[in-house]
Please model this.
Amino acid sequence: MGAELLRLSHRKERDKRLTTHIFLSCRILGIYNIYYTGDKDEKLEKNINKVEKNWGKCLNVQHIKKPLKLIEEKKKEGYTIVHLTMYGIPYKQKINEIKKLKNILIIIGSEKVPSEIYKLSDYNISIGNQPHSELTALVILSYELNNCKLKECSVKSLYRIIPQEKGKKVVRNDK
Amino acid sequence: MGAELLRLSHRKERDKRLTTHIFLSCRILGIYNIYYTGDKDEKLEKNINKVEKNWGKCLNVQHIKKPLKLIEEKKKEGYTIVHLTMYGIPYKQKINEIKKLKNILIIIGSEKVPSEIYKLSDYNISIGNQPHSELTALVILSYELNNCKLKECSVKSLYRIIPQEKGKKVVRNDK
Model:
């Protein structure tokens, strides 16, 4: 199972921190190809690159202008489209079906998601049928797809944490 | 197992969206008592109340000024303190121990967390030893504590979603 992410309608001011958290979280969830629409955000991309310079390069983040075109292309390539929305079918009813798929494109929105996305998606899936967070939905779906395990980016990195009972310990891998 | 949350150092401008997402996510994770420090944020509290007016009142959100005092009080009441930090011990090594506890206070930070928090915490736990998101860490820990299930707020609410394969359906419970 390979999973990619499409983050819709990023707004530079309003969403900068949340989108950063979403993209960084992908590094521990095994989602390395990320597309986003809305505002092209150089600062966001720079921040992600900065983190990856220290902690290993796993992500491929691309700003795109036409999400519907991307969805259609991905479908042609054999991807199944899984849109996360609180209006969708509870994930426990569909997770085993989704786990069997080869490649999926997960879509998460920001503000109002256009109705075309609901129509074009193969699955509209809910992680709780009440307001919560697109990041929470993404985390739970990916965690379930990985059989309740993380899937951490583990390429060569400049820094590494040595886990501690108390306090912090970071070492450089090149020293 | 009862879990409460302490969110440290909320900054009104910078964290407003993220903290909102954290608090709302607590509604589907079974964490209903929430304390936060940093800026007292009336607008944030109002937004949460507005959501809960429509979707059911589960949360009890309190701004506090002295986190160390809260931690000490909770300890006296028999709570175990679990601080989530990327510097801590990987959760898989400790989750079974933590699951056996009666009551825990989960601490998540924002910017730099003071070293006293590391010292006062009974557990410093990491969800991935690399930068990600305090929301992601909270979601994974809570989900594990609930045996890979959600624990949704299910009190009487004004609205209710009827899950759909495509599109949205919301009904009022009083009609």
Q: What stands out?
A: Chain B has six helices and eight strands.
